[in-house]
Structures are given as C-alpha cells and as structure tokens.
Fold this protein.
Amino acid sequence: MRRQISLTSLPRLRHSVNTAASLELDRGVAFLLVPVCLAIGAIGYFSLTAEPDFARPVAVVILTGICALVSRSWPKTHLCFMAALLCALGLLAAKVETWRAGTQMLGSEISTQVTGRVVSLDRMETGRIRLTIDVTSTARPKLRYAPERVRLSARKIPADVTAGSLITGYAKLLPPTGPVRPDSYDFSFDSYFAGIGGSGFFLG
C-alpha cells in the first residue's frame, strides 16, 4: 500500500518541481545565477594544484559555447550548457586576472638598501609604522629582480614623511608568507593580487 502511494505521488511531485522551476525561470532567477556560476568557475581555477596555460580555459569556453549554441532547441539541456559556459568564463577570467597582475615576488629573504616612493602609511597598535613603498632602486646588494612594491615596517620615521615622499633605508626583505597550516588563510595569495612582492622591516 505504501509503495503504491509513493509511485502514484511521484509524477505529481515531478510536475510540481517542473512548475516551480518554470515559474522561477520566468521571474528571471537564471539571470541572478550568472554571478554565482562565474564565481564557481573562478573558485575552481584557484583550487587547481597546477597553473594551467591559456589554451585549456579557452578550449573549455569554446567547447561549452558550441554545445550551448547547438542545444538551443532543448531548453533544459541548453540551460545546463549555459551554466557550464558561465563557469568556464569564470575560470578564464581568473586566469586572465592572474596573468594581468603579474606581481614579481621575492624569492628568498635578503637585506638591502631600499629606495622608493611611499604609497601609504599605517600606524600599528604596537606603535610601529607600516609603509607601502613603490621601489625605485636597491643597493648593497642591488637586486636583479627586485619587487615593484613592498610593505615594510619601521619603529619611527621622519615627521615630514607622507604618502608621495621619497624614502631610503636599509631593510630586511622577506617573501610573502603562505598559509600557516593547510587550507588556512594564504597571505602570499592576497599579496600577489595586491601587487606586494615582498614584506619586511627597516633596519635603519
């Protein structure tokens, strides 16, 4: 008896789901899911264990685009391929943004004389001052592949130093640190997309 009731209610349930889905699509929920699909593609890209070249994301976009074009006569299939296309576009957008940033990261720690222009100053709770600096030159030793922007802290700085000032000093530079433990916050990821190629502190 229970089996019979469940079998008879199955078509009714399927009809209700189809009706609700059609209603939501008519209300424009598919458009609201566009950024969700793009975000899924971007998250998928940054979850990869190896950096793909441009050919693979482009190939996926072309393939899903062709499938979405061909499947226009089948609304449900077309909708699935459109979602896949948007995810592929999100993946490609993440690849393009990674390539566009192109931040040169410091490979190892080193002490050198840094000269650069101050971008911003932040006073920390410890009393130290954190400076974001666009590096113009390095010396003793001169770095062959110096980062374009670094973030350095100092115990004190001249009172007239403001954003835009040219500053020089001997500093210890460190590469941006990765996550402290697996799957925790990755500081080097944030630094890369902020254009910060190294961090450290002034020795004087």
Observations:
- The CA atoms of residues 54 and 95 lie 7 Å apart.
